[in-house]
Amino acid sequence: MSPDSLEHLHDQVIACRRCPRLVAWREQVAREKRASYSDQVYWGRPLPGFGDADARVLVVGLAPAAHGGNRTGRVFTGDRSGDWLYRALHRAGFASQPTSDHCEDGLRLSGAYVTAAVRCAPPANKPTPAERDNCAPYLDRELALLPRIRVVVALGAFAATHFTASAAGSPRPKFAHGAEWDIGKGRTLLCCYHPSQRNTFTGRLTEPMFDAVFTRARELAAA
Question: Are 107 and 84 in contact (CB under 8 A)?
């Protein structure tokens, strides 16, 4: 395996133990489990990205869900945020199916790659900025290994912050749903509310709003 490959990076991510708080939490959840998943073996480790190595669109979320990706072994899989994301990616032509239940469910992405700002499930779904900074080199390395990326879709302000330092213009732009920032190297950052239950249950993010983001991402990627 080449040390300069996505596969090698995946192995490095999975073995990571940089954040003691996250290590303790992800492993505790994997041992104790949710009652409805008591018969399942939880992944309980950091999650690498997933998708097409020739992708032109990179989707960056917050972090794995304790009983979603931390259980299933694939980012945005097995939780309601993932249900929203992969339905939208399927409607936009990026995903082979609209459902995402487990890492062996046959889902394939075409033209898109999905990852997260933080690779371990955090307590209360709230990673710290320091934990995001610990994971930042992995995200930077993914971008370097995905040379065709032209659009980065940031799901939420926490994920978008990773890219603001390279955004063109002054003062630094503020996060807003649908905002577009030039982040250099021919890439555009496209901001989107995170498909969390807090946003989707309240109507702050609707499926038409979500679909519009990925329609725009496809337009920008083709330009």
Answer: no
Render pLDDT for 56-71 as a digit per residue (tens, 0 to 9). 999 999 999 999 999 9
On whether the pTM is more than 0.90, the answer is yes
**Full strand arrangement of the beta sheet holding 57-61:** 50-51, 112-116, 57-61, 151-155, 188-192, 180-182
Domain that holds residue 218: 6-222
Beta strands in 16-78 (DSSP E): 50-51, 57-61
* Predicted confidence (pLDDT) at residue 17 exceeds the cutoff of 90: yes
Q: Phi/psi class of residue 178: alpha, beta or left (left: φ > 0; alpha: ψ in -120 to 50)?
A: left
In whole angstroms, what is the distance from residue 82 CA to residue 180 CA?
23
How far is the C-alpha of 44 from the C-alpha of 120, rounded, in Å? 8
Q: Which two tokens stand for residue 85?
A: 């994301």
CA distances from 149 to 59, 79, 109, 121, 217 (A): 10, 26, 14, 26, 11
Q: What pLDDT shows up at residue 166?
A: 62
Structure tokens at 42: 């939880």
Instruction: State the total domains in the chain.
Output: 1
Spatial CB neighbours of 118, under 8 Å, sequence gap ≥ 6:
22, 62, 63, 127, 131, 132, 135
Asked whether residue 1 is assigned to any structural domain, the reply reads no
43 assigned to some structural domain: yes
